């Protein structure tokens, strides 16, 4: 096993070291009692008068009341986007569109702390993640795409392109603000106007972003944000004046959207689920690989479509590696997401908690062995401890279905060919991880893994310049990079 | 005196490098503009389609793992074979109603198009891929890869150029295909199959079915081992609810009225793969 296991393995508790809590203040955040829909530059009520509560999943206490957009409201939003496209956005030079996007990026940087705290309150993710990952990346996405707005002809030489017009965008609850940034920034840079729907459990940072959009004087109607659940989403998908759809979420819902769009020949991009293999070869730098696996599955409570949820570890090191992993998991701190020391925060919703619990039980019923650390969980709120399932067979539900929680399933392999076969044996193809010190093996594996993002000797890294998206049933289209712009432009005078 | 009676060609399917008849035993007739029978062409069934997908899947990995240079040479060789059978194609197009000038023009354009796409094999990656300047100590690059098995509803018009315009951009990157051709354009499609059989394109890379496109469309879009479909060739009257099943495995559905030489048609059947690796000592 070489060089990497010489480190002292005693836990911090052995030395009597405990972390004092370091709670991030919420004083910066001013949550309103009620939020309207952001249509045509104003916050407005729903025509139906309906609303719903959004909770803090770590306390189960309501944070605010959010308006539920009816199909009439969605219609208003689409018309506003459509008028605004003709009136302002289509005519505006790219250089001016860029200036608005730069402004949004700057406002996000200036108000990053406020956004991060609100993200953690509404979604349950650890403050260290919303502070160090979600916010910097969201700002970076606007900054990166701002620069493209007046350079699009360099991205696609020899092609005459134009924006689609009105884009309908539906985003999930796992990275609420970041997904809004991934969707809005390229759409706006390419000259489209947008109707965006955040997830019903995490609407608040998108609504705060609406304030920023108003503050930077973006022309009214260029971005409209409508809150609601599935029915609101359907109203966007079915609206005849939406010219293109972009969806991030479950494969199940993605397929329904594709069914609707394909009959109408409506341009569509989908970023769906995953069941990423995380492959550890015996020659890997094991200390780093353990950290990579931990980050791969427990980042954001495992609510990550590209999470490294299937550990494939070479048989020769399996026992040692799993033991190391379990010792490391014992050190993870689960609890108050506002605590700067917290590693694993709250599960986003009761429905998701129940789904995780149900799938883990199914795994145990099918013969998997379960490991959970000895940590205690808070009484209120939605929590699930970091969990490892071993003795898992390829046919087990936990090896095939996306759990979308802090649950790692473990399988072993002997040869690279076997690892590859197991890794690719899934309808998904979003991401994959490889750990080995052998460069040629990395490239051999990377070439053959059917997944859109390959992390070698690292995991869960994201960047606005780096295209992200899936193969197979993980969706189509890319977000980020030059390649990500393609989805938001069409051939002039022709179809997509 | 024997040998004066012409031997007519039997138009069969092209699956896995062989020329079987349809397992259904069915045929359809193709006539010339005067209404005289030219041929009874095999009418492919759902089962023939499944056989063709099986052949395409079996051939895909090895076709994709050839070097780009090798794929380019193999495809250029096809153009050589087409050139040597130019007269045959011109006569074929004339038999279904083209005048001599337009038939010659279509054949010449077809050969040129084949050469144009063949030359892209070792170039599109450099145009469509990238090294990405991420904000951190990582080497990060994006490369295009073939989507996998592609189903193509061949345009019925122009019969030779139409098929070639959709077929070559799909296979040049390492996809394998199942083509469905209909009506009189079937004659050119089957003859292109005969050209492929005598070239170095491995069996299963291109499979050509003749039959009723509307009948076979639901099987094509619903097949779970087909990764992408090009339905640009379907007739305008086709009921688009027939393609809903494409969502069953999140197929890429391409429908665009571009028939000229275009890099876009290559990129339609590519997936972008992004690889990260740390930089350090």
Walk me through this protein's architecture:
The complex is a heterodimer of chains A (about 500) and B (about 280). By secondary structure, chain A is α/β, with parallel strands linked by helices. In chain A, about 40% of the residues lie in helices and about 15% in strands. A seven-stranded mixed beta sheet of chain A has the order 14-15-16-13-12-17-18, sandwiched between helices. In chain A, helix 1 packs across helix 8, helix 3 crosses helix 4 and helix 4 runs parallel beside helix 6. In chain A, about 55% of the residues are buried. The N terminus of chain A is likely disordered. Chain B is about 40% helix and about 20% strand. Chain B is built from nine helices and ten strands. In chain B, the strands form three sheets. Chain B has a five-stranded parallel beta sheet, sandwiched between helices. Chain B has a three-stranded antiparallel beta sheet with strand order 3-4-10. In chain B, strand 6, helix 7 and strand 7 form a beta-alpha-beta unit. In chain B, helix 3 crosses helix 4 and helix 4 packs parallel to helix 6. Chain B starts with about 25 loop residues before the first strand and ends with a strand. Chains A and B meet through helix 9, strand 18, strand 19 and helix 16 of A and strand 4 and strand 10 of B.
């Amino acid at each position: 096993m070489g060089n990497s296991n010489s480190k002292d393995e005693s836990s911090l508790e052995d030395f009597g070291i405990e972390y004092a809590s370091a709670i991030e203040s919420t004083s910066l955040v001013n949550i309103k009692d009620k939020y309207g829909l952001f249509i045509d530059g104003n916050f407005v009520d729903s025509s139906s008068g309906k609303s719903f509560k959004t909770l803090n999943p770590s306390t189960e206490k309501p944070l605010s009341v959010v308006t539920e957009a009816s199909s009439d409201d969605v219609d208003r939003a689409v018309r506003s986007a459509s008028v605004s496209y003709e009136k302002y956005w289509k005519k505006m030079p790219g250089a001016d569109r860029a200036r608005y996007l730069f402004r949004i990026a700057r406002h996000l940087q200036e108000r990053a702390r406020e956004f991060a705290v609100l993200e953690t309150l509404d979604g349950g993710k650890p403050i260290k993640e919303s502070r160090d990952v979600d916010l910097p990346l969201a700002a970076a996405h606007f900054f990166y795409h701002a620069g493209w707005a007046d350079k699009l002809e360099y991205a696609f030489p020899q092609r005459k392109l134009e924006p689609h017009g009105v884009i309908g965008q539906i985003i999930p609850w796992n990275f609420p603000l970041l997904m809004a940034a991934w969707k809005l920034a390229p759409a706006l840079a390419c000259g489209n106007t947008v109707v965006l729907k955040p997830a019903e459990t995490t609407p608040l940072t998108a609504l705060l972003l609406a304030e920023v959009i108003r503050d930077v004087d973006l022309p009214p109607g260029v971005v409209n944000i409508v809150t609601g659940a599935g029915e609101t989403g359907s109203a966007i998908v079915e609206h005849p004046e939406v010219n293109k759809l972009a969806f991030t979420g479950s494969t199940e819902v993605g397929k329904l959207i594709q069914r609707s769009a394909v009959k109408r020949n409506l341009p569509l991009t989908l970023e769906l689920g995953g069941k990423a293999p995380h492959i550890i070869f015996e020659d890997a730098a094991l200390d780093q690989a353990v950290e990579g696996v931990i980050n791969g599955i427990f980042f954001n409570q495992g609510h990550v479509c590209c999470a490294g949820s299937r550990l494939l570890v070479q048989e020769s090191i399996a026992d040692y590696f799993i033991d190391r992993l379990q010792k490391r998991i014992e050190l993870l701190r689960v609890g108050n997401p506002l605590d700067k020391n917290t590693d694993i925060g709250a599960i986003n919703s009761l429905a998701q908690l129940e789904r995780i619990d149900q799938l883990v039980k199914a795994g145990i019923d099918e013969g998997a062995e379960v490991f959970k650390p000895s940590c205690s969980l808070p009484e209120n709120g939605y929590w699930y401890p970091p969990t490892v399932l071993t003795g898992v067979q390829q046919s087990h539900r936990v090896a095939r279905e996306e759990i979308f929680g802090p649950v790692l399933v473990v399988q072993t392999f002997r040869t690279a060919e076997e690892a590859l076969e197991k890794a690719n044996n899934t309808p998904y193809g979003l991401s994959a991880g490889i750990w080995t010190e052998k460069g040629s093996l990395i490239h051999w594996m990377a070439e053959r893994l059917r997944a859109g993002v390959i992390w070698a000797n690292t995991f869960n890294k994201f960047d606005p310049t780096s295209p992200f998206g899936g193969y197979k049933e993980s969706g189509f289209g890319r977000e980020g990079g030059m390649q990500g712009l393609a989805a938001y432009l069409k051939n002039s005078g022709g179809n997509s | 005196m024997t040998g004066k009676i012409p031997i007519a060609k039997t138009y069969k399917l092209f699956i896995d490098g062989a020329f079987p008849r349809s397992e259904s035993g069915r045929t359809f007739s193709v006539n010339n503009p005067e209404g005289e029978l030219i041929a009874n062409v095999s009418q492919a069934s759902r089962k023939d389609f499944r056989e063709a997908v099986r052949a395409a899947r079996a051939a895909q990995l090895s076709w994709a793992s050839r070097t780009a240079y090798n794929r380019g040479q193999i495809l250029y060789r096809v153009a050589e074979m087409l050139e040597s059978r130019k007269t045959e194609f011109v006569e074929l197009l004339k038999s279904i109603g083209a005048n001599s000038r337009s038939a010659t023009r279509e054949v010449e354009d077809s050969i040129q198009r084949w050469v144009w796409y063949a030359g892209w094999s070792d170039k599109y990656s450099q145009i469509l891929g990238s090294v990405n300047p991420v904000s951190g100590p990582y080497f990060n690059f994006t490369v295009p890869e073939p989507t996998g098995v592609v189903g193509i509803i061949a345009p019925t018009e122009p019969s030779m150029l139409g098929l070639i315009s959709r077929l070559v951009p799909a296979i040049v990157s390492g996809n394998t295909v199942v083509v469905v051709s209909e009506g009189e354009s079937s004659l050119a499609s089957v003859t292109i199959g005969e050209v492929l059989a005598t070239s170095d394109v491995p069996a299963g890379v291109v499979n050509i079915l003749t039959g009723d496109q509307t009948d076979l469309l639901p099987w094509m879009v619903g097949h779970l081992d087909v990764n992408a479909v090009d339905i640009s060739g379907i007739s305008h009257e086709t009921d688009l609810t027939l393609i809903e099943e494409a969502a069953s495995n999140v197929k890429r559905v391409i429908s665009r009225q571009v028939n000229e030489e275009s890099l876009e048609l290559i990129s339609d059947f590519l997936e972008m793969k992004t690889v990260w690796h740390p930089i350090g000592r």
